[in-house]
Amino acid sequence: MQQRLGTTERADRFYGDQVLDHLNARMQEFVARQEMFFLATADRHGECDSTFRAGPPGFVRVLDARTLAYPEYRGNGVMASVGNISENPRLGILMIDFTRDRIGLHVNGRARVVMDEEMRANHAGLPVDPIPGRRAQLWVTVEVEEAYIHCAKHIPHLQKVPAQQRGARAWGTDDFKRKGGDFFGAAAEAGERLPFQRTERKNEHLRGGLHEDADEVAYRGVTATYGSEPVGSTPLDPRVAPAYGAEPRVSGREDFVEELNAEFLDRVERVLARAQPRRPAEDEPEFRGWFDRRDV
Question: What InterPro entries does the record point to (predicted)?
Fold first, then answer.
């Protein structure tokens, strides 16, 4: 993409100047005062989730220059992020300071889930939060592989609302309305959706029984399909079924993945063939996007 769009030199300069494999002193100070971050994870198939985490300043702990940790509080029980990490330890964290410095920090790395008792046994200085809804059930430790800046130019400047105006936050509540209720009207459409059916897949979380692929369906011993093409038809013998988090084998999976990759790359090539490097607005005032509108 960099070569096609003419950004290789600029990207190399960014890699060389800004991307570290650890948290330097200023990054550590930045992390220690953050009250929220955005978290990206994916399961073993590449199915993604993004989510939001928040807590009091310092809820993300810098254990050392190459390791940080954050607590998992009691939530809705779906455990989507932790479920993903159990299958795929790679994650991405984005912290943004909207109120003071208007700057962001990316941290990419490998994660491990640790029970609260084990975490406290190894790190005696961890505080015990007095708020029940902010007491960690478990922790995620992150081995830092990349740490780099998120530029300020599109970050809005926000201001904190005084505590007496914003009201108390309902940490750990199970009250439906205090958690947001049916804000988006999803429950009202429940009758139009397929019924939720829990499958035998051990790492069941957000997508439930409605999302099927070759590995998940193989647990039930049936043939999965992608479009009209069969994916695999070999049921797993329960005596040799993989352990929690392991990837089951399905006949034809490797060929199927290669076909998908080839199809994906072909689509990328067609899109890139239509793309043009972005020029400064003053050099091309009629520019209105990445593609010639006649080709859309």
Answer: Pyridox_Oxase_N, Split_barrel_FMN-bd
Looking at the structure of the chain, the number of domains it has is 1
What pLDDT tens digit does each residue of the chain (296 aa) get? 999 999 999 999 999 999 999 999 999 999 999 999 999 999 999 999 999 999 889 899 999 999 999 999 988 888 999 999 999 999 999 999 999 999 999 999 999 999 999 999 999 888 888 787 888 989 999 999 999 999 998 999 999 888 778 777 777 777 777 778 888 888 878 766 666 665 555 444 444 333 334 344 333 333 333 333 333 333 333 433 333 344 444 445 556 556 666 666 666 666 666 655 544 444 444 433 333 333 43
Instruction: Show the domain range for 92.
Output: 21-153
The alpha carbon of 253 is separated from its chain's Cα centroid by a whole number of angstroms, namely 25
Give CA separation, 107 vs 82, 93, 118, 148, in Å: 17, 5, 24, 7
56 part of a folded domain: yes
